[in-house]
Amino acid sequence: MPDPATKKRAAKDKREGKSVGTQAGEFVREEIHHIREGKHGARNTKQAIAIGLSKARRAGVALPPPDGPRATRRQAQHDLEASGHAPSPTRSRATRRALEHEGQKAASPSALAGQARQAASRRGPRARALSAQKAARTKGAAGRSRAAKKAAATRAHPS
């Protein structure tokens, strides 16, 4: 079951008119925190994200099923239909016990960065450029200034 605070943050995102992906991101964030604090583990970063998205669908976020294997789409559809129903305690316990045997590296900053890089590489150059432009717009003046200073400091200087 998701924390009430996570549900509250997702509901706030919905009220503010943010995308379903942003709303679901709150549940993914919660899952990453659970793994980092040792509540359970995950085999890899994709699994950690998938658990968060599943929780989001079950909590009522209208996140559509992804493109991909039929089994994944079917499970996502099942999660959407399961919203509002209490989870089975036996299955929850079994899942948690299985995840307790997995490691915590899936939620490390380097693993998350690698997953983000991999996901971005699957998108076209235009989609990545638009995403970067949107990030720059929503960063704010102070954030842009910080980013520019960081870029200047890390830029390779000609020798």
User: What is the chain-wise order of helices and strands?
Assistant: HHHHHHHH
Q: Mind describing the biggest β-sheet?
A: none
Mean pLDDT: 92
Poorly predicted regions are: none
Query: Helix segment count?
Result: 8
* Structural class by secondary-structure content: mainly alpha
Strand content: under 5%
Distance between the termini: 56 Å
Q: Outline of this structure?
A:
The protein is an all-alpha fold and 159 residues long. It contains eight helices and no strands.
Task: Please characterize this protein's 3D structure.
By secondary structure, this protein is mainly alpha-helical. The chain is built from eight helices and no strands. Helix 1 (4-15) runs antiparallel to helix 2. The relative contact order is 0.10. The model has no long low-confidence stretch (mean pLDDT 92).
